[in-house]
Design brief:
This protein is α/β, with parallel strands linked by helices. It has 13 helices and eleven strands. It has one domain: TIM Barrel. The strands form two sheets. Strands 7-6-5-4-3-2-1-10 form an eight-stranded parallel beta sheet. A three-stranded antiparallel beta sheet has the order 8-9-11.
Length: 318
């Protein structure tokens, strides 16, 4: 296991892949997972230069293909993604990341469109021995992704596990890891806190190790399934509502079970209690400071915590 960062985290610093790699190297990260805004392109010569630069500095790299959602992106997007798969495979990027869309694209029609697109992409993925790992983003739960994998096949589809995005759909990170671990090939290492709010529960992003994600339990499970799994820190602020008081929201989450909902409520009670006692800073005051002003402090903290946890894992294995 290595600890790097997702390029989205430093979007306010640079979107150039060489700049992102330089940043990672200078600040003690092990690599970069490029997002779809990293302007990689499909020029194989340039891609080889990017990989060479990374390897010369001892850094891992992963790439993302465009959003797979022909409902919103159009059918032409599939041929564009096929070109990305072919180009990326030529520089050793075979485990690719994507998502099915934005936070408001939760409907089953979007997931069905993504499934059909993956079936169309199967020949090119098999030809280049590649797999696309879908993120449990705001529009997909881990249950959704597991059903998609069942339809598409785990030889060409996997999961980019975002450890804190689980909360947005009232999923418990540890339980989510237990059901998805065999299919996790890339990650967004993220943390957060939960607290009660008018709509139900609110999630706020925090650096890995300073939130309520149970890393001590999660990492051994992921490590057991894939010792070479990279932990790419994705960090940002923002508040996300988990509208458990809203009937339609509950209807839209048919997989939500009492055990996970109870764990979510328990986490929220604990955090809300600590906020009232001043142990955790008031979330709304915390949010007033821009992410850019705190970015390095947050990244350094997450990097050091996760590296410590990985070192402990490896030591226990000996």
């Amino acid at each position: 296991m290595k600890v790097g960062l997702d390029a989205f985290t430093i979007r306010e610093v640079t979107t150039d892949p060489f700049g992102q790699l330089k940043f990672a190297y200078q600040h003690g990260f092990d690599g970069v997972q490029f997002d779809e805004a990293s302007y990689l392109g499909t020029d194989v010569g340039r891609l080889k230069d990017i990989v060479q630069y990374a390897e010369e500095n001892g850094l891992y790299t992963h790439a993302s293909v465009d959003v797979i959602n022909p409902v919103t992106q159009g059918q032409d997007s599939i041929s564009k993604i096929a070109k990305e798969i072919a180009a990326y495979a030529q520089v050793g990027w075979n485990e690719l990341r994507t998502r099915t869309g934005g936070l408001d694209e939760r409907g089953p029609q979007y997931r069905a469109g993504a499934v059909e697109a993956m079936k169309t992409l199967r020949p090119v993925l098999k030809e280049y021995h590649s797999r696309i790992n879908f993120e449990n983003h705001g529009e997909c739960t881990t249950f959704d992704l597991l059903r998609m994998i069942e339809e598409v096949g785990d030889d060409i589809m996997g999961i980019n596990l975002d450890t804190a995005n689980t909360f947005v759909h009232a999923e418990d990170p540890l339980l989510a890891v237990k059901r998805t671990a065999p299919y996790v090939h890339t990650t967004h290492a993220k943390d957060g806190i939960l607290f009660f709010s008018k709509e139900g529960i609110t999630r706020q992003g925090r650096p890995a190790g300073s939130g309520i994600v149970e890393w001590e339990a999660i990492l051994p499970i992921l490590y057991q399934h894939n010792k070479d799994l990279t932990l790419s820190i994705e960090d940002h602020k923002w508040l996300f509502e988990i509208s458990i008081y809203n009937e339609q929201w509950m209807v839209d989450h048919p997989d939500l079970n009492p055990i996970e909902l109870a764990k979510l409520v328990q986490h929220s009670w604990n955090c809300s209690d600590q906020i009232l006692k001043g142990i955790i800073q008031d979330p709304y005051e915390y949010e007033k400071v821009s992410f850019a002003d705190e970015m390095m402090e947050r990244l350094n903290s997450a990097r050091d915590y996760l590296k410590m946890m990985v070192k402990k894992l490896k030591a226990e294995e000996i």
